[in-house]
User: What shape does this take?
Amino acid sequence: MSESTNQIFVRAKKKINDIYGEIEEYVLETTTFITALHADAEIVDKAERELFESYVHKVAAIREVLQRDHMKVAFFGRTSNGKSSVINAMLREKILPSGIGHTTNCFCQVEGSDGGEAYLMKEGSDEKLNVVNIKQLANALCQEKLSESSLVRIFWPRERCSLLRDDVVFVDSPGVDVSANLDDWIDNHCINADVFVLVLNAESTMTRAEKQFFHTVSQKLSKPNIFILNNRWDASANEPEFQESELAKVKSQHTERCIDFLTKELKVSNEKEAAERVFFVSARETLQARIEEAKGNPPHMGAIAEGFQIRYFEFQDFERKFEECISQSAVKTKFQQHSSRGKSVSGDMRSMLDNIFERITIFRDLKQDQKNLLTERIQGTETQMMQVTREMKMKIHNMVEEVEEKVSKALNE
Ligand code: GTP
Ligand code: MG
Assistant: This one.
């Protein structure tokens, strides 16, 4: 099986984690050395020692963020356009509750869990609420008296979906038409999103609420990656009075509006890029097709209307372009930032070590000078002592001679 595009992110994440592991070792080792220098001799002062200790914390904090880093895609659009259905289709399973009326009542984040477990976690709590099946999940979400901007995290076994395995996190939202707190939504849930998907209803046209939401997103984020899905495209095939040519006209009208929105209004992409960001799909049909495939049946058994194959291909095309975009954007925005921070930490440390090394060299030279001086003094003393000793010896010698002379003189007398 060929490697998925998202493996770029997974590989880059592993590599940068390994590098940071090495940086951490290096920082710890250096800090131990610096602490010893501080204790033994006053080469390093307290402030410097504390600065080195702060690097240990800095690197540990970056490592923690790195462990948690993932690619994030957030879905927005009017109520009932099919946001939850699109996510389910991408996950190949009905995980998120979907239905007529206002279904999703808070932010729901689907992310991969290890160990085959499925559970929920509410904002501000570490408690794992076990989820056995989708019905229970829907009930759990309904029972919660949650504010629309709060977040429920749904952990779903990684092995059930390749996108979850590759660290993609899905964020589902309530309809943009039901909230007055769109700014809070963006601040709380969108700032670190790598890709946004605007889910439209192909049966109608883009609403002012949808447009306004993305205007705010593009004001707060620089050049967000936005995909537009014209969902429920299967419904167009069911229009009895629709001729093929009329269908093509509606499609080109929608396409033109979407491209204009991305290029002229939001100014987030050029014409060519924008043309690669607009799709006509049926989420419900794609999900049904994938559920059939999982049972070993041909996908068209999930078809809702004529033209299934084209819509199914278009959904797959969207997924391919989406994967390419999300992994590139995540590697660039997330890891570029981390590697430049890593570089600045190691750069700071190096210049500090250079300073310390210089100080040590000066200190050593000073010691050497002191040693030399001392040696000279000792040598001097030795010479002096030798001289004194020699003089003493002479004196004693003379004294002895004198005494001997006196004694023999006295004896002779
Ligand atoms: P809220 O959570 O209420 O904001 O809605 P949503 O945007 O998440 O829509 P949801 O996925 O719940 O879909 C609403 C209804 O539309 C459900 O009954 C879906 O089965 C149906 N639906 C979603 N996508 C399609 C589609 O492509 N074609 C058709 N025919 N029905 C769809
Ligand atoms: Mg929903």
About this structure: The CA atoms of residues 72 and 194 lie 5 Å apart. The longest strand covers residues 107-113. The pocket of magnesium ion (ligand 2) is lined by residues 83-84, 98, 103-104, 172 (CB under 6 Å).
